[in-house]
Amino acid sequence: MATLIFAGFILLSVYLALRARGGRGPQSVHDFFVASRQFGAWLVFFLAAGEIYSIGTMVGFPGGIYAKGPTYGVWFLGYILLAYPVGYFLGPRIWDAGKRYNAITLPDLFKGHFRSRFLELVVAVTAIVFLLPWGQLQFTGLVAALKGLGWNFQPLWLICFSAMLAFVYIAIAGVRASAYIAVLKDVLMVAAIVVTGVAVAWEAGVTPVFQAASEHVSNAMSTQQLTFAMTTIVFQSLGMYVMPFGVQNFFTAKSAATIRRTQVAMPLYMLMYPFLVLASYYAISRNIELASPNEAFFAAVTQLLPSWLVGLVAAGAALSGLLVLAGICLALGPIVTRNILSGMPEHRQKASSKVVIVLYLLGSIVLTLLTPNLMLTLINMAYYGVTQFLPGVIAVVLRMRVRATAVAAGVLAGQGLALVLYYKNPDLGGVNLGLICLVVNVAVMTVLNVLLGGRRAHAMDPGVGALSPYKK
Amino acid sequence: MFRLLIGLGLPYLGVVGLLPWAASVERYVLGVPFIYGWIFLWFVLTSACLWLCWTLFDRHIVEDPA
């Protein structure tokens, strides 16, 4: 029964993808990747929510609480929440810059502002490297979700099945398919989470669950844990909207005001989390034996809900993973065809991107099979690298005259140090290592810029800037 | 400036700045440990801060027609 319901929703999603394409002629590159900048507030909202609340929400977040207690819960909620104010102020400016340079990808922004092939390549290549863990994260979650359905296939088959679906969505209608499916996914995901939370409250009661759980995990945080939570919240909230797919989402918006309005509503969307926290603590309070912490949420689901509802929950979880995969692919495809292989004509970019997408999916599959990890560790990994683009992005949107070489050196220094610290694992007293790297990044950029004479990146057009509505 | 203070300053102060305090409170609110209740509260408050920014400052910005 669960499988039947699940299959029904997946079929519905494919139908929506086909509908998204409906009645249009051949799609241009811009339409395929950023919907020709036509989306209004609702679609931008769902598209953004679709990619932010990835399968990390339903699988990784409960798993983190289950494995590490409230520290993980607090930083996860805190960083997503604080990313919205950042997006409110940064998003419209990114959108503005995107329009100025007719950008599709994040590296396009750097290319347009700094006019440096080297910097463009640095951003493009490292963006791809640090997005591999993000793909791996989705696959790990998808396996947990599909197992929750009681499917006992080899993970390899489950992963390949998921990859195939993600590819189908993109191949049908690009970002338009993603936006339409995002609506279905969000409805299902919120329904699934609320239903499970209510079921827990009904069966066990809120207070008893937390009190029983407090015998297994402490609600108090040590100084070290507190430092970790605070620095990670700051670091990752700064990084969320420089994720290559996040930047691309802004580009789909019709106007800067569209972006502001979506950001105002975003925090309210998080009101689903209390239900999810409750479900996670249920797994702890009942001392359910799990093969992996990633199964915490589904353990609560299968214990409490009837079979058909399990199907609905699994469909919501699977779609959230698939949608994010599709989003990453839509970001990476054009990064390779536009920014790495230069000089490819626009009409060939779409088809070539699809090849790149298949390769990326295969790469993530291999990583998933070789290195299984706690999902929240994977989130950290991606942020260490991606957030290092922030100083450069700020230079672009504020039209600062910084040398391209200085920006590139800063990015490479930050990312290189992040990798070293990640593998050496020294005691930093709980401070998020990415934050340290970001400080180093800015320092390198500033010093080098001064040493090189601090000349401008390139001659700028003062006329457009004077007209900008953001000049205050 | 005031705009940044409301939209960015207040949420960061509440969620990050006051986290040590929120984590030290050992009460339950509505059956939920205080630290979670505190963050949940800021879901609504952050939205309110941004809404204020929108209504007070940004609603009237005329979009660049170019």
UniProtKB/TrEMBL annotation, chain A:
Transmembrane segments: 72-91, 118-136, 156-175, 187-206, 226-247, 268-288, 308-335, 355-375, 381-398, 405-423, 429-452
Family matches, as Pfam families: SSF (PF00474)
Membrane-protein topology: Multi-pass membrane protein
Cell compartment(s), UniProt: Membrane
Gene Ontology MF term list: transmembrane transporter activity
Keyword Transport attributed: yes
Transmembrane helix listed as a keyword: yes
Record family assignment: Belongs to the sodium:solute symporter (SSF) (TC 2.A.21) family.
Protein name: Sodium:solute symporter
Source organism (scientific name): Pandoraea faecigallinarum
TrEMBL record, chain B:
Pfam families: DUF3311
Keyword field: Membrane, Transmembrane, Transmembrane helix
InterPro entries: DUF3311
Membrane-spanning parts: 34-57
Protein name: DUF3311 domain-containing protein
Natural source organism: Pandoraea faecigallinarum
